[in-house]
Amino acid sequence: MNGGPAAPNRTGPSDGGSSISRRSALAAAAGLTVSTSGCIRQARDILVPNNIQQLSLTITTLPADSDRQSIRLSRELADVFGTVGIDVSFDIRSPVDFRRTVLYDHEFDVWIAEHPGGTDPDFLYEALHSVYTDESGWQNPFGYTNLTVDDSLETQRQLEGEKRREAVTDVLEQVAIEQPFVPICIPDQHRAVRTDRFDWDERALATPQGYLGIDPAPDVSTLRATHTDSRPTSNLNPLAVDYRGEDPFVDLLYDSLATETADGEIEPWFARSWEWDAGTIDVRLRTDCPFHDGEPMTAEDIAFTYRFLANTRLDDSEAAAPAPRYRGLVEAVDSIEVVHRDRVELRIDAGRPVGERALLVPILPAHVWRERAGGANGAGGATIAQRTAEAVATENVPPIGSGPFQFAERTEGEGLTLERFDGHFTLRSGVDLPAPTVDELTVRVDPPGAAAQRVVDDTADVTTSPLEANVVAGVDQSGSTRVLESPSWSFYCLGFNARDAPFSNPRFRRVIAQLIDKEWLVDEVFHGHARPVATPVTEEWTPESLEWNGTDPETPFLGTDGEVDEDAVEVAFESAGFRYDDRGRLRVRQ
């Protein structure tokens, strides 16, 4: 297991019976430092004049036409950072370039954007465990290493019930102290829908199943969606982290053994049922189910999927090439065995709550993806690292899945059409699962500000992208348009690149966290359509010690109403081991 360096031994040799305590000695040393700080500063400037410079920090984020909240958060925080003596610049990138820069290349100082989060706190295992430090994807993009946190993350995976809750609390409290990223808020999810054409399940819209089982009005055979992100029209690879945002389309094209409800419950999907026994999941599969190209889907495809996601090169090399998505889910599977054409057993190296989540990965047809195990050649413009398989770089158009919808056509950058897959098991009699109720699903790409208006104008039925906060109040609901709110578990955050100083220093990160007035930002940037948080999990998992009670209980804001207290910040930085020059600039070793 990879981990951070061991903490230095701070216990000095015996003082031979000196009456001065260690604490007193430290206090005396601190006093000496204060009283002679000017001399020390001058001496250091003489010795290393080019080694101490103003801290320069670049914020990597998204443009307003992709994520208005991210760029507004970035600008507000840049103003605060500049006020306290930090030189700030921006690196504004498209959604694809942003993810490649942050998730693949790890070339950033800090980033501000929406993290996908999860209904279960186990997403933090993937997000923070040090074994993932050099991998691509949402696996530890922060480069954070802490062996104690690793141990806690591993422990919570093995437990159930109240014991697991206690272990999760340990993780959350340690992360709140270390601040590898600063969770800012969990945004509300609002979507505009037409109620004269479909009956909607408000909560289900947070999941792909929200677009199945909806009752259409008479003579309605097309579900018209408007989406603000053009990436699904360019790439339909379920493994491509740079192209996968918040959309239901890939999940409608690919089945999984289980499905997750808006409440975080794991329920059977392609699996008819399963039994859990001593770390083994015995899964019974549905029979006579084809892929979209007519090839049968069997237990062999299930086994192939898990082996392929664990190593997309399908070789015996010690250096595996895992898929950059679903990494944490697949890692819970120790082995998989085909018992019968319609039955598999998964040996799980985790407790039941985490183990059953491993059933959520998309089932890949072996006859399509096996030939993509070769080395990538840069298809799709992705950054290609050593041993990256073609499977990660391919655009995967047309996609061959087994889901309730199948690919029909696309116009890159403009739209996408999916058709009902009549061979899908949800359409069989006796199957009590939400099924497609329309002949086709059409997706048109629109700017964020125009999407809701298309629903009002009756040229779209639903905004599959959540509405931006500044749009919600202005949607005309006087006719058949309604704005529905769904559960949300993604969160906006400031992420540090802990691979580099000073962002590797938790004391520095904690002071930066105290420059963020989360309550004020929720009002200013999100117009109140979000809730400030001290920890990035759902309210169900938030421990009492990290509940939001008007301020962050671990890193409270050093100021009032968005205005930072510069004197308090200077004291905080200097207490953390940093210093200012006589022009009020925060200085660090370069």
From TrEMBL:
Pfam families to which the protein is assigned, alphabetical: SBP_bac_5
Example GO molecular function term? peptide transmembrane transporter activity
Q: Which residues form the Solute-binding protein family domain?
A: 265-551
Q: What domain of life?
A: Archaea
Q: Which residue ranges does the record annotate as region Disordered?
A: 1-20
Biological process (GO) annotations held by this record are: peptide transport
Gene3D superfamilies per the UniProt record, alphabetical? Dipeptide-binding Protein, Domain 3, Periplasmic binding protein-like II
Keyword annotations:
Signal, Transport
By its UniProt entry, which InterPro entries does this protein fall under? SBP_5 (IPR039424), SBP_5_dom (IPR000914)
Spell out the family assignment given in the record's similarity comment. Answer: Belongs to the bacterial solute-binding protein 5 family.
Full protein name:
ABC transporter substrate-binding protein
